Amino acid sequence: MTPDQTIPQLRALFDQQGQDPYFGEPVTQLEHALQCAALAERAGSDNDTVVAAFLHDIGHLLPVESAEAYMDGYGTVDHERLGADHLRALGFSEKTAVLIENHVNAKRYLVTKFPEYDARLSDASRQTLAFQGGPMSADEMVAFEANPYFHEILALRRWDEEAKEVGFETPSPDYYFVYCRDHLSR
């Protein structure tokens, strides 16, 4: 698929569901994505990471086959893997996919490593944690820490938690679709 085919497909997902509430939070799906990308950009992140921040929850926007695929009103079970696999198939980089695929693992890791982190989670993030495997085991933590993108994954998680603010000023979706086009054109 070329960028000229891929970008309209991504745009359509946001057009169809971007104004839906972001599961128990005071922002929409699109506002959350834009805020996360803006935070990544403000931190001086590379293209792969800004794109991952923008598209990290794309798995929530993809069609699912059954009601069992939902987390009691909190989105799609395994959305991180579904989104990463979808973006790999569209030609996005492995780094972008790995960041997306692991942003839930980062929450599981942080809750385990820093018990006080749980108190910083929104109610919705706490609710989804049980569907997402709960705290990590010691072996899972060791494997997660060995990921070559460990620090970027933790940063993405931090932006994910922060990107729930009403009235947060961001660039338009078109601005981040240019990031995606540039990413796919490399």
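[next item in queue]
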Amino acid sequence: MLRTKIVCTIGPATSSPEVVEGLVRGGLDMARINMSHGSHEHHREAVERIRAAARKAGRPVPILVDLSGPKIRVGALAQPIELVEGERVVFAPEGQAAEGEIPTGYAGLAGDVGPGQQVLLDDGHLEIRCVETDGVRATFEVVRGGLLKSRKGINLPEVDVSVPSLTEKDLEDLEFALDIGAEYISLSFVRRASDMADLRSRVQGRALLVAKIEKAQALREIRGILAESDAVMVARGDLGVELPFERVPLAQKRIIQMANYYGRPVITATQMLESMIDSPRPTRAEASDVANAILDGTDAVMLSGETAVGSYPLQAVEALRRIAGEIEGSGVLEYGPRYVTAIDDDDPRAGASAREHAVAAATVDAARQLRAPALITITRSGFSARLVSSYRPSAPIFAVCTDPITFTQMAAVWGVRPLLATEEEVSYEALTEFGRRAVIDSGVGRVGQAIVVTAGYPFHTSGSTNTMRVEQL
């Protein structure tokens, strides 16, 4: 069983029950529903297929609903416009654009951008630079030209845009996500910690929150964003537009390292196996890319178009499993994440209290010294299991959950094997014995071997990891 988790985007290519069942059998650990495409009706049907396949396979598969966020786009064009290097073009709000002007769906563009600032169009293929603005219309000089088509994206890497983090569409999609019982909800184009705090106030603990890091501003605000999130995603699509391409690899490593440091699960996404949309095999460069994300310390790797619209979704999942299996089997992950000292002397450990980090670190260290075959984490909210996971123990984590939602959520966390307790008595002794039986029944451990058990006491209090004990199977 892999410790690295696999996330698959569900779309037209994975719309049949047979393919969804194949994904779950093949190693899918989390299903992503992309709210940028499709209707609520179609998404609801997809979720029902995923839940059915998970029940049939006898294991939990959490749902990640990915909110679109404030994506800024070019408006509707009567026909594509050829932008010529050196010429000037005017952008105006859609509905107010005069003949010869380019409409934009974001009315605040001219108010946010200033002279000299760079604007990128169509995933960075086209580049313009602001010359002047009157607050309603903005004039740009074309730096890198090409054919501009309707509804192409607009990126403003040098601009702190004033658009709300949750659009009207996002609010409708959020209501849908909560209605279907999504275990995870991600927000696109996060810029600051307050974006996630706003989302948290609306969700009120009904799902775990994932911050998608895809803006240069988010990188500058990464600590605050991590503090307000339950998990993060390295969304390399727009991040690769916001940043010069040569900076993306180091940005990825920094985000993953910071997420590990804060005890936040991290998903690495976008173009992991892009060629497999049309090919049954990945390129060697893609295999190296996936392997390096795992070596960097990612919890999960995600497929987007490969499983949403690709011709080989099952083969793409199999390719991820083979790459992850090779890296995990090599032994290079046995000594934990790459950080070795505090990232900031003023913030020696973050994401949890010093006591909770001390217990998690001691748990993993004890398991290594004892060569324990497994760790047992008794958890109500999943916090203890996520924190222990961030220290990357060399043995699997059997997370004994007393809540069905937590049980499903834990399936997406690195190295965790979630267990839903069936004990009527909720006590340390009863839940530990339940975990012991599961470790033995799984074949991971043998009677008499030492294991390490972590829990928070009292059990009904979330985020109270304060107990570590060495027990015997």
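[queue empty]
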